[in-house]
Amino acid sequence: MNAFAKLKTITPTVNQIVRTYALKSDLKIKWVRPEKIPCYKPEKSGDLQALPKFAGTELMKDYRDSKELETANEHVRNLFTIQHNRRREMVENFKEDMVRRVYRHELDYGSIEAKLGLMTARIRSLQEYMEKFPRQSVVKVQLKELIDKRKRFLRYLRRWDYRRFEYMLEKLDLVYKPYPTHFHWITRKDSLRKLTTQHCEQIKETRLEEYRRQLESQQLEFLENKLKTLEFIRKEQTECQVPVTVSSEEIKTVRKQYEELKQKRAAAAESLKESEDS
């Protein structure tokens, strides 16, 4: 007899050797790995607004105060508008707009508020560029560095001047997302452990709620039996001339509880009936 035949004969008797600790669980728990969001996306950087859409008829920054363009031909004037020039001119207009929101005076370009405005404008322009060309690795690195630099500036403001920090967030439409205090990898095992704990807590709460409803349904009958028992005990003790352990105040409180609960149940039943009829 060969080895395969011997193994075939003993298989019915070794059912206890089958591994069961790695089988799938019967619990209705499903874990889906969260979608990874790159750090340069607005959801992670905290930018609540994108780059605004300009009409295109605005003049470039260096030619706004030109008196010659005021009386120039329409075709000549169009040559100095944003729509007929590079995208950088539009970004420069947006930078100036962001700085004007938070600057301290008209010539302020070196304060921390002006720097944050310039960085925010640059970040949003690079985010729009990354949406069109997501494989530009050099631009991606520049964008990550800018976001980290702005976060360091905001962290400094939050620590030393919280009112100015809130003012900057409001004016620039930002949400400050600090670095996590403790870093941990998102793993399937850890997530399933947390989901199992939540599932067990939910089962516990549902069973406790069912038990509470069961006790509330038996409360009226329990008070009625308690009232009859107390009255019987007091009556027997007075007839047998033994010390009375049940006072009349206890019987009154139990009777009051019984009457109040009975009225409450009747009112609830009437309201339920009216709602069903309507």
UniProtKB/TrEMBL annotation:
InterPro entries: Ribosomal_uS15 (IPR000589), Ribosomal_uS15_bac-type (IPR005290), uS15_NS1_RNA-bd_sf (IPR009068), uS15_ribosomal (IPR052137). It comes from the Eukaryota. The keyword Mitochondrion applies. GO terms for biological process: mitochondrial translation. Keywords: Coiled coil, Mitochondrion, Ribonucleoprotein, Ribosomal protein, Transit peptide. SMART domains: Ribosomal_S15. GO terms for molecular function: RNA binding; structural constituent of ribosome. GO terms for cellular component: mitochondrial small ribosomal subunit. It is found in: Mitochondrion. The keyword Ribosomal protein applies. Its main location: mitochondrion. Residues 201-278 form a coiled coil. HAMAP family: Ribosomal_uS15_B (MF_01343_B). Belongs to the universal ribosomal protein uS15 family. This is Small ribosomal subunit protein uS15m.
